[in-house]
Amino acid sequence: MSAEVLVIGGGPAGASAALHLARAGLHVTLCEQGPRLGGALHRQPDDPAQRIRVPRAQSQRWRALSTALEASSVQILCRHMFAGIEGGGTVLLEDRASGRLVTRRPAALVLALGAVERVTPLPGWQLPGVTTVGGLQVMMKSTGQAPDGDVLVAGSGPLLLALAAQMAALGKAPVAVLERSPKLVSPSVIASLITAPAYLREASHYLLALARAGALPQHGTWVRAISPRDGRLAVTIVDRHGRDRELVVDRVALHDGLLPNQNGTAAPSNGPFVVRAGDCREVLGGVAAMADGRHAAKAVLAHLGRSTEAEPSATRVLSRERRAQAAINALYDYSGADPAWLPDETVICRCEGRTLGQLRDLLASSDPVSAREIKLNGRFGMGACQGRFCAEWVAAFIAAQRDGEPPAVSEIIGSRWPVKPVPISAFVTLPPSRPSE
Question: Where is the FAD/NAD(P)-binding domain (predicted)?
Fold first, then answer.
């Protein structure tokens, strides 16, 4: 049997890498933590009859890739969560169906973990009924249904348009879409996207759907605070003229861009060859992720001494998508809130309920406090997410308080294994024998 390659992540990058490695004759195992392949972008519904509408080209690309993958020799393990790589090179997986741990010692490991969603802390963001735009979209893709009640979508980025248009297509447009960026479009952006016209078509489709629903984005508008009121959410909104107004809704979806998911991806010196693919390496979207999966496969083949062919088409796709994403990102304002105006009661660490005021008190101590002590003594980043959602903001607020460069996020969260919470019962069932190969 050829040396095993383990691919983590069943989205476009992981599926593409696994398929190309299998076609080269390698024994490949593809692990996906969800019940089905697809990742966040191509999330498959619980009921195939309840599929929400997505751009045709997007669904066609995934259908072709997934069909080829199913016909290949790739071993597919769904409901298997990547829990990290220990110092000796063993890869730990949690089989969520059985509640057991599985270990592997592959010759190569492809990490296609996707992106993580950013949400800027603001008063009330931790309340029930407040979610991320991406989380709400995943729910809709899984159920084929829009959320009940009045929904406000706010933040910055193209994902706001996508979610709002999909809600409108289901007959439940948001009551408002608040886009922090004051820009709408510019000739320079359109010129930059000429080589990637699919983005222009997609944006036009979304805007047309929202215009029909009377829910076009309100630019230069953002959420100042959220508070509970009679079982609903009272949202304080700041318009582009700096004026406050209030809107009472049932749900708020927030989003401030995407970052590569690099949590726990550091490769041990004596472990397998590790390569990253897709949005966890560089956030460029689904088309680029498929091309990057091919690039990752080529790197693995070269490392294992297999003959490889040049991938000029993948290189061209990545260059084109990088230019397109740079043009798109220029339209949006991902800066979020200025820490200076956030009140002390603003929750920063949602898992532990730690507030900005408590962080300020720590930093005001007469004895200098290190970034690591902020976690160990202040319990920021100490909860279930282990800082995946708050460490970035803790670092930013430290920099704002001390008027300097922010500490590295790794200084706050440290190095962890496993990288995600795993039940102790799963460890109990782990046999003490040598890991499978």
Answer: 4-188
